[in-house]
Amino acid sequence: MERLILENHEIKIYYSSKQPAPLVVCHYVDDGEALIKECRQLGCGDFTLVLIRNLEELDEMSPYKVETLKQFRGMGEEYVRTLTVDILPQVEKKLKAKPEEYLLAGYSLAGLFAVYAMYHTDIFSKVISCSGSLWYPDFVNYVKERELPCKPEKVYFSVGRSEKNTRNRLYREVETRTSEIERFFAAQKIQTVFELNEGGHFQDVSLRMAKGIKWALE
User: Is the Cβ–Cβ distance between 47 and 7 less than 8 Å?
Assistant: First the structure.
């Protein structure tokens, strides 16, 4: 594992045993070793994992400002540029070979960002959104009303079955909104999966991410 500090973000690189390999860029997950272990137990193929930490999550992972959610600054587009222009080129310099492909994976707000980023870069061929905050106001319309610069090959979605059982009016729409977005992408001839997991929002984070990565790499 190698550690870099770029743009105030901490980047951890877990190299694959072979090169070239797919490059999985992951936000929100803290324990890369645990995630890789879950992937191996599921029989996942080799990949290089890049974990990005020290995020200003409410700012960098939110797509746009919403008047009723003043705590979210909507800096997603700015962070897409930081990721693709500043962070990834530095990561690539550390690799022995150019990655076979680039995957973007995220959990919670980072799962929202992973889907949002598809509309602002064409570098990621596969996207994994686990328990993504797709309840974000007007995000379904955002997805449906804009064109992708390049259709990804695969997009994976999952939520916990209990996530909708909350008093928060916005959060309880997560399953419905996620399902609607998944169906929309499927109608665009993009290979998709929407998986329901047992439990609530913060349960089995590494396992849920590993399931998405395995499916995307198959």
Answer: no
pLDDT in tens, the chain (218 residues): 999 998 789 999 999 988 899 999 999 988 999 999 999 999 999 999 999 999 999 999 999 999 989 999 999 999 999 999 999 999 999 998 899 999 999 999 999 999 999 999 999 999 999 999 999 999 999 999 999 999 999 999 999 999 999 888 889 999 999 999 999 999 999 999 999 999 999 899 999 999 999 999 99
CA 30 to each of CA 149, 152, 200: distance values in angstroms, whole numbers, following the listed order: 30, 26, 19
- State the sign of the Cα–Cα–Cα–Cα dihedral 10, 16, 19, 21: negative
DSSP E strands in 21-141: the ranges are 23-27, 48-53, 102-107, 126-130
Residue with tokens 């797509």: 63
**CA of 136: how far to CAs of 16, 18, 149, 171, in Å?**
35, 39, 22, 8
Residues in CB range of 89: below 8 A, 6 or more apart: none
Question: pTM for the complete prediction?
Answer: 0.97
Q: Report all structural domains of the chain as residue ranges with CATH numbers, in order of start.
A: 2-217 (3.40.50.1820)
Strands annotated E in the chain? 2-6, 9-14, 23-27, 48-53, 102-107, 126-130, 154-160, 191-197
- Do 98 and 121 touch, CB atoms closer than 8 A? no
**Number of residues in the chain:** 218
Q: Taking the alpha carbons of 193, 53, 91, 18 in that order, is the dihedral positive or negative?
A: negative
